[in-house]
């Protein structure tokens, strides 16, 4: 009797090609590439595995009632908020993500942003363009304090890198943690407003959940020191953008570096573009050269485990919205 290969439905953003690095699946599985609603609705009834590269997609929920054979959903992103609709949460189908792939790259990005602020590189580059020689003094990193909101794998890597640069680093997690190896102290999320005033850098590295949506609003910005800078590499809706703009305009905080936004792409007429104390990047903090191939290799490793009946890596706690530490076990 012929062995039937499992069907992997690969859902990408519209007009995106399949990611590189999936070639080893040839002969092991049938990969069906779809990039729109109609394609997904047609392909999903035969799918054993759904591989989602479009982390903003909202069409999976519509196709869900047709997923008669589905046994596993994998997202090639750390954030899985777009996939956490009630029907998937209630199902027994496991959801895995790309935990571990982007940690180091994002941490390097955050370190670069703290250096940019401390050493005032924006002014240096502006003066260079103007061919103006102007001596200035800049801040030191050593002795500064960072508060990392989100103490998961990305937050931990950020903490390690910032501590190696001379900063003290506290974390905000769902609950207090004593004797954490990567943070000076980890506080429960209920203490966020209490800890914000002492931070020179506030780094958002949390997933988007009901608990974190809108967490940084007028109340949070009022609690921050007027000399503090906000760095968001987590999810855009964690920050209430209008409240951030108001805080920057009145000097409630000194600056912000934003890689994610409530609305993406950020509209060209948005006031954030015109603010000298703001650094804008384009949802790219973790995207190193070769990241797509690395994501494919991670999926293939998990596919091999799935095929052999071994426990999957990076199983998301669908109620909490992220991978608990005991469900990661990534090859680093």
Description:
By secondary structure, this protein is α/β, with parallel strands linked by helices. The protein folds into two domains: about 5-100 and about 290-325, 3-Layer(aba) Sandwich (Rossmann fold); about 105-280, Rossmann fold. It is about 25% helix and about 15% strand. It has helices spanning about 35-45, 60-65, 85-90, 105-120, 120-130, 155-165, 190-195, 220-225, 240-250, 290-305; strands at about 5-10, 30-35, 50, 70-75, 95, 145-150, 170-175, 185-190, 200-205, 230, 255-260, 280. Strands 8-7-6-9-10-11-12 form a seven-stranded parallel β-sheet, covered by helices on one side. Helix 4 (about 105-120) crosses helix 6. The radius of gyration is 21 Å and the shape is elongated. The chain starts with 6 loop residues before the first strand and ends in a 25-residue tail after the last helix.
Index terms:
Rossmann fold; alpha/beta; single chain; seven-stranded parallel β-sheet; 12 strands; five-stranded parallel β-sheet; 15% strand; 27% helix; 332 residues
| Overall number of domains | 2
| Rg for CA atoms | 21 Å
* Major sheet: arrangement of strands: 8-7-6-9-10-11-12
Compute the separation of the termini in Å: 39 Å
The fraction of residues in strands falls at 15-25%
Categorize the overall geometry. elongated
- CATH class membership of the largest domain: Alpha Beta
**Average pLDDT for all residues:** 96
Q: Tally the beta strands.
A: 12
- Indicate the low-confidence ranges by residue numbers: none
CATH architecture of the largest domain: 3-Layer(aba) Sandwich
């Amino acid at each position: 009797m012929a062995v039937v290969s499992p069907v992997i439905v690969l859902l990408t953003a519209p007009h995106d090609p399949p990611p590189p690095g999936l070639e080893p699946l040839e002969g092991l599985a049938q990969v069906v590439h779809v990039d729109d609603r109609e394609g997904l609705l047609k392909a999903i009834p035969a799918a054993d595995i759904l591989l989602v590269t479009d982390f903003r997609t909202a069409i999976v929920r519509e196709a869900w009632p047709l997923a008669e054979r589905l046994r596993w959903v994998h997202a090639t992103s750390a954030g899985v908020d777009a996939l956490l609709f009630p029907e998937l949460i209630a199902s027994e189908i496991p959801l895995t993500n790309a935990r571990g792939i982007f940690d180091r790259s994002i941490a390097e990005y955050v370190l670069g942003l703290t250096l940019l602020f401390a050493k005032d590189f924006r002014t240096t580059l502006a003066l260079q363009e103007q061919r103006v020689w102007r001596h200035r003094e800049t801040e030191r990193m050593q002795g500064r304090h960072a508060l990392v909101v989100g103490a998961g794998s990305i937050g931990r890597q950020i903490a390690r890198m910032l501590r190696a640069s001379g900063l003290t680093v506290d974390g905000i997690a769902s609950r207090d943690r004593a004797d954490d190896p990567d943070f000076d102290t980890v506080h429960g999320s209920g203490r966020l407003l209490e800890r914000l005033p002492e931070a020179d850098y506030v780094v958002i590295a949390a997933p988007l959940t009901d608990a974190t949506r809108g967490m940084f609003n007028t109340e949070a910005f009022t609690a921050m020191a007027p000399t503090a800078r906000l760095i968001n590499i987590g999810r855009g809706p964690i920050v209430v953008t209008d409240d951030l703009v108001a805080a920057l305009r009145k000097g409630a905080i000194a600056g912000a570096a934003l890689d994610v936004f409530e609305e993406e792409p950020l509209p060209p007429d948005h006031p954030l573009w015109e603010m000298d104390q703001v650094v804008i990047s384009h949802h790219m903090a973790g995207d190193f050269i070769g990241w797509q191939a690395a994501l494919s290799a991670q999926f293939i490793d998990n596919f091999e485990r799935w095929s052999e009946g071994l426990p999957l890596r990076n199983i998301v706690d669908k109620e909490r919205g992220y991978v608990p530490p005991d469900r990661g076990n990534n090859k680093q």
